[in-house]
Specification:
Elements: H1 2-6, E1 24-26, E2 29-34, E3 40-45, E4 48-50, E5 56-61, H2 66-74, E6 76-81, H3 87-92, E7 110-112, E8 119-121, E9 126-139, E10 142-154, H4 166-172, E11 175-180, E12 183-187
Antiparallel strand pairs: 1-11, 2-3, 2-6, 4-5, 5-10, 6-9, 7-8, 9-10, 11-12
Bound molecules: flavin mononucleotide.
Length: 201
């Protein structure tokens, strides 16, 4: 029986990272921090997600990235959830640094965060402002940086409300998903999830 189950499976070599061998669905956000010289830094992250049901946010980062060092130093960061129309900007934010900063960021339109010292991407549909909560090491090459959300701002067209149909909302204000490795998807169509009766969170 077991042999039959494995017949159509390929067991991967776990001595190597497995994540390039298939696609997974991920979010895509821009994490905003302040460089030591005062310039803003924005960096795309796809390993980025709510840390539970309460107002905490986390993302996986390389400790060698300026984003990690900036958060360690300043104790705060922002998160902007771009729209599909902003995908090119989101990608360009991963351009290599020249000297102390990323020159490409000078063409980005941003506005100041309200509660932390940081910038948010203009026209993104969701903005989070976070204070550094804790950083966790021990995942091989990467670290998990978590923050407490101290302010959140949603574009009016993306805000859920009881008098608005969720399906229509997603259709009118599409979401972007990063399909690792190296593909993306614009989500305008969605279906109500078939939750089991009496499910508890
Ligand atoms: C689509 C995409 C997704 C990425 N996701 C991550 C991620 O989840 N974690 C990470 O550490 N780097 C990720 N990167 C790489 C960083 O964004 C990139 O190295 C960036 O330039 C780092 O900037 P910094 O040194 O200013 O922090 C991603 C890059 C792209 C293009």
């Amino acid at each position: 029986m077991t042999d039959h189950a494995y017949q159509d499976l390929v067991s991967l070599d776990i001595q190597e990272p497995i994540w390039e061998r298939f696609f997974t669905v991920n979010p895509l956000v821009l994490v905003g921090t302040r460089d030591p010289g005062g310039e803003i830094d924005l960096a795309p992250k796809h390993m980025a997600f709510p840390m539970g049901w309460d107002n905490y946010f986390g993302f996986v980062c390389s400790p060698s990235h300026a984003t990690a060092a900036n958060i360690e130093r300043t104790g705060e960061f922002t998160v902007s959830y771009p729209r599909p129309s902003q995908l090119l900007f989101t990608s360009l934010a991963a351009s290599p640094r020249q000297g102390d900063g990323k020159p490409v960021l000078s063409v980005f339109q941003t506005f100041p965060a309200a509660r932390v010292d940081g910038e948010l991407l203009t026209d993104a549909y969701l903005h989070l402002e976070c204070t550094h909560h804790a950083t966790f090491e021990g995942f091989g090459r990467n670290i998990l940086i978590t923050g407490q959300i101290v302010a959140a701002h949603v574009a009016k067209d993306a805000l859920r409300s009881s008098d608005r149909d969720d399906q229509q909302l997603v259709h009118n204000s599409p979401l972007v998903s990063y399909l690792h490795p190296g593909r993306f998807f614009s989500i305008a169509d969605s279906n109500a999830f078939p939750f089991p009766k009496d499910m508890k969170k």
